[in-house]
């Protein structure tokens, strides 16, 4: 029996929530995953998991074992990484989660520059506006455009952007430009979904946050698609300026309701706190800070 392997499998079950999810991740059968847990429980002489056909929960012994095992596995990973780093070569795979627009428009050029400096590093980037749970272990770094942070992670501010409201000159010529946020109810809205503010648009009214639920005609999780729709005169969009920048430069979109603009949102690189950070992570974070400062 490989106790470290069984320990890793147990920790992933706790983090992913089901045997089948771990089996899929490790490319094993669910029966084999069950076998590993049975071996682990037999060797320890305790039950770690309460299992039914519909639910999975930790026993008190399982919770204590998970907390110590997680720390032990992290220490082992740190030891291996620090030892490998003695070779003074930065290598390995960095797994990144980034918002769709920021990742597609701004991270690809940054990654291209980074890989020229560190050719032995590989980068796996997943684009999703919903922030991942870093504790699950699927990502090393999560890039977030937000004004609220998980207190349990390290957050390094790499840039900032404003959340503003836009429309095309043609739309405004036909429908008229709203002068107050109350007038938005008379307009067609294009809504950005899967963002931290959910179904609401955010505005600043006399220094206070004002949320308005938009009555949208088109919704998407892709800011580029929404900007294109707005440029075609389909309606008004609220989006981060970083998504809209090319359309502002071309004159296809203009900002409206400036007096209600919220303070700038920070763009963070977040990662879990640990005692040792591998060179691939530290060099990438430092590179991003310098790259976006320029």
Automatic annotation (TrEMBL):
Residues 1-59 form the HTH lysR-type domain. GO terms for molecular function: DNA-binding transcription factor activity; sequence-specific DNA binding. It comes from Methylomonas methanica. This is LysR family transcriptional regulator. InterPro entries: LysR-type_TF_proteobact-type, LysR_HTH_N, LysR_subst-bd, WH-like_DNA-bd_sf, WH_DNA-bd_sf. Keywords: DNA-binding, Transcription, Transcription regulation. PROSITE patterns: HTH_LYSR. The lineage of its organism: Bacteria, Pseudomonadati, Pseudomonadota, Gammaproteobacteria, Methylococcales. One of its GO terms (biological process) is DNA-templated transcription. It comes from the Bacteria. Belongs to the LysR transcriptional regulatory family.
């Amino acid at each position: 029996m490989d106790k470290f392997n069984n320990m890793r499998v147990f920790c992933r079950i706790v983090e992913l929530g089901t045997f089948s999810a771990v089996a899929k991740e490790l490319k094993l059968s669910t029966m084999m995953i069950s076998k590993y847990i049975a071996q682990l429980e037999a060797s320890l002489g305790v039950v770690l998991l309460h299992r039914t056909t519909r639910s999975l929960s930790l026993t008190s012994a399982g919770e204590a074992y998970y907390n110590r095992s997680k720390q032990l596995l992290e220490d082992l990973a740190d030891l291996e990484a620090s030892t490998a780093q003695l070779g003074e070569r930065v290598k390995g795979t960095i797994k990144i989660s980034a918002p769709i627009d920021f990742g597609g428009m701004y991270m690809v050029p940054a990654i291209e520059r980074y890989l020229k400096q560190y050719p032995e590093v590989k980068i796996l980037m997943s684009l999703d506006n919903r922030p991942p749970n870093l504790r699950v272990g699927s990502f090393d770094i999560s890039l977030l455009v937000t004004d609220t942070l998980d207190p349990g992670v390290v957050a390094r501010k790499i840039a900032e952007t404003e959340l503003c409201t836009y429309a095309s000159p043609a739309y405004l010529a036909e429908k008229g430009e709203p002068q107050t946020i109350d007038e938005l109810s008379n307009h067609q809205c294009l809504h950005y979904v899967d963002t931290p503010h959910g179904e609401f648009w955010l505005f600043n009214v006399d220094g206070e946050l004002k949320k308005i639920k938009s009555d949208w005609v088109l919704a998407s999780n892709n800011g580029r698609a929404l900007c294109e729709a707005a440029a075609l005169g389909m309606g008004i969009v609220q989006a981060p300026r970083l998504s809209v920048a090319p359309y502002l430069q071309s004159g296809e979109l203009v900002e409206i309701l400036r007096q209600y603009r919220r303070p700038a949102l920070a763009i963070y690189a977040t990662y879990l706190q640990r005692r040792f950070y591998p060179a691939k992570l530290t060099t990438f974070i430092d590179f991003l800070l310098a790259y976006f400062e320029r």
